[in-house]
Amino acid sequence: MWEFVLAVLRGQAQVDFLPHALTGAIFAVALFAAGWQYGVYGLLGTAVGTATARLLGVARDRITAGLEGFNACLVAVGFAVFLGADHLSTALLALAGSAVVTVVTGAAARVLATWDLPTFTLPYCLMASSMTIAAPGFERIWHNGEGLAALTHPAGGPTTLSWTDLWHAFFADFAQIFFMPQWYVGLIFLVGIFVASRRAGVMACVGSVVGIFTAWALGAPAAEVAEGTMGYNAVLVAMALCGVFLVADAWSLGYAVVAAAAATGLSSAMAALFAPSGGHTFTWPFVLVSLVFLVAAPAFPRLRRPDAAAPTDSADGAEGAATQVAAAA
Amino acid sequence: MWEFVLAVLRGQAQVDFLPHALTGAIFAVALFAAGWQYGVYGLLGTAVGTATARLLGVARDRITAGLEGFNACLVAVGFAVFLGADHLSTALLALAGSAVVTVVTGAAARVLATWDLPTFTLPYCLMASSMTIAAPGFERIWHNGEGLAALTHPAGGPTTLSWTDLWHAFFADFAQIFFMPQWYVGLIFLVGIFVASRRAGVMACVGSVVGIFTAWALGAPAAEVAEGTMGYNAVLVAMALCGVFLVADAWSLGYAVVAAAAATGLSSAMAALFAPSGGHTFTWPFVLVSLVFLVAAPAFPRLRRPDAAAPTDSADGAEGAATQVAAAA
Amino acid sequence: MWEFVLAVLRGQAQVDFLPHALTGAIFAVALFAAGWQYGVYGLLGTAVGTATARLLGVARDRITAGLEGFNACLVAVGFAVFLGADHLSTALLALAGSAVVTVVTGAAARVLATWDLPTFTLPYCLMASSMTIAAPGFERIWHNGEGLAALTHPAGGPTTLSWTDLWHAFFADFAQIFFMPQWYVGLIFLVGIFVASRRAGVMACVGSVVGIFTAWALGAPAAEVAEGTMGYNAVLVAMALCGVFLVADAWSLGYAVVAAAAATGLSSAMAALFAPSGGHTFTWPFVLVSLVFLVAAPAFPRLRRPDAAAPTDSADGAEGAATQVAAAA
């Protein structure tokens, strides 16, 4: 039982690549700070996903490391945000989605293992996109009036970032990974990341800064930047590519910065691509950019992938690297 | 010549995974019952696809088992339904499409073989989607006035299923695999399935029931359920995952039921996704859900894949399993 | 330095599969004839892509053959055409895009090598589509007023091709590969192709004729045919499948003609598919059709792939074949 609780907490933390139970607990606190329903959805989703994986007999090390929980966590919270947390239909769908995403994870893991790639949050993106696009077609689960399908229009409004916009954006970038726009929720998430690994925390900050700078330089509306929607993918990309799936050094840092900037630009493309169907961006930019940059890495001898068999750099708490890489291998 | 006729009939039956010539003949009767043109398109399409494969030198066992015919059959019938069966342009395009889909089948088979997966009706979905989306751009082949590109709106109308709706839906689910909405056409298809394999027939019924229940539970419009558009993917998924590509037992039955429900939900997502381009759902939900659930299966030790080398369970007529699995291997 | 210049010129020529420096120089002349900015963008883009590959340590033979330049060339010219060549923001983005596409090329090459496939212009298509769809969301890079997102409508207008339409279309098909609609620009490109390889030149002509005939037969608007937008994909497909990636003989000629016709139909589908997001067709039809027809080829014993180890048919200048095939292997 205690082992299961630890697996669930690690599952929450694995959203940010960190198989660290205390970090997972802090992430849960952050979700409760945003709204108690989100905290409940997050924990129950992770638990359902982890339990489904056990029921189906998934390899024990994947479950223990929390790798069967993080997609389910995001699916449950995502359903709560987009379908309304207070409806019974949403709760039932979130439970079902958290279970089914385990199958999608198994599929993504097997296909991507062909190129030694991890799944990232691809299973969650597939599941959440399917659900949000499908929902308006079903009257018992759609309670939001008009659908969301619309053609995009060119951005308007001010692009100048005030000091308040800037620091709100910096912290909100960590919170938007879980769809939350509040800066203080992001601050709690950042504390959780630093608790697990100083290096991961630094890279998260680097990603947030790169995301904000890129969005400003390209001319994104200031309001979007301030609530974190332009920068959360950059945070995840920077963490993934410098220290987790590539050995942290000057080359992977530069690689991660370029990738984080690319993911920021891609955020706008994914929004326009999904808009006519009523879909959302979720973490698609992070998933696509990270997969592309990681699968390309062996072509560039200057970039080194961590040796899955080697002892992890536990001094800095980056044990997530070897875990996810080993799981992908 | 007689061998070719048998291959064509098996090709028609392979739409439902059944390499059984008599079943193919019954399926042809069902298409003729829906409209003589559809019967002709179906038979000619299957024949053209099979003949193209022979011309190009495809492996003989694939041709004999009808695996080079079923996508062509659906392509031809699909063109007839969506472009109008009575136009010469449609007939010429259907012939061309039935030939070209052989190449798409070869491509899909080679790529999916990387993970021991069959093609399902992916080649047909690619071909038919391309054609329906492209057609309004060409004046000589588009005779239906306004195009179909539109944004979706949330579902409206009654969701309560009458008794008539229910049994119409149950049979129409078998007919909509071939785009036909008539319950009696579906009944003939179901007879054909039972002739080849009692187990396949039972699973088809299970899939239809799961599809109807899921659609009702989620709140799909009753009219759509009654004409079979919400349930035909569930029928195919249930047949594929319990008894054909996974050994039939309690675990694969549960797995197939979950997958059939997921495919029903995905039907709405695919409709909204294709709507702005003027595309159709075809059997995309079946293909995507079946590929995901099948490629994930090795991660779940409780699910067993049939041994392609072992003698087939001919007592129950499920010889399609080993055939398609062997072809995928 | 001289070696780098040769690699850049070969990179320009590799857009048409020709690792031939003189051809690259002629292609540059064609771009300058269309507008001096396009010539500059093309050369600088190719140079940045090639230099980035060297910086990242990509295998030397890929760089020397120009395989790290052709996607960057198209990215830079594409950005200039769609975002406006005269803006500083466009120039900076084109430089960034030409560098990043090197990573996308590495990713595509590794994934597609699983099935012995080359990347074609897939990296460019991914990059250019992302950019055009994302651009209207950013105020500092979008200077074209209203966005381009729209639903397609059925084609209208005359479909009868005049003699002027016909010969304009024939040459414009070669120019539209680089987004240029002028017949004389296409003529210069064609001269460049013939300089490198008579066979490639003949197949380019065959592709153009097939594209024009198919577009006319299906009923495409005459204006689109005349400016080359319906035929440039057919040109690339015909060259790729008969003589470069498949040994030129009667079978591959027939195969290439069918594929070129399919790509022409697919052009309309891709346009309708991207329209609601504001995206463009680019060379997606060529990439998708060529990948499908090439990955399927081993299923058809009548088609022969060139032996990468064998000496190339240098008498006819088709050294591109072995180069790209070897790079894919």
Describe the structure.
Three copies of one chain form a homotrimer. The relative contact order of chain A is 0.13. Chain A is about 65% helix and about 0% strand. Chain A has one domain (about 1-325): Ammonium transporter fold (Orthogonal Bundle), CATH 1.10.3430. With about 325 residues, chain A is mostly helical. The model of chain A is unreliable at about 310-329 (pLDDT under 50). Chain A is globular and about 45 Å long. Chain A has 15 helices and no strands. The interface of A and B includes residues 99, 133 and 276 of A.
How would you sum up this structure in a few lines?
Chain A is built from 15 helices and no strands. The first copy, chain A, has 329 residues and is mostly helical.
**Assembly status:** homotrimer
**CATH architecture label of chain A:** Orthogonal Bundle
Question: Any idea what the CATH superfamily of chain A is called?
Answer: Ammonium transporter AmtB like domains
Mean pLDDT of chain A: 91
Describe this protein with a few key phrases.
cell membrane (chains A, B, C); globular; Ammonium transporter fold; mainly alpha; Urea transporter (chains A, B, C); homotrimer; urea transmembrane transporter activity (chains A, B, C); 329 residues; Urea_transporter (chains A, B, C); disordered C terminus; transmembrane helix (chains A, B, C)
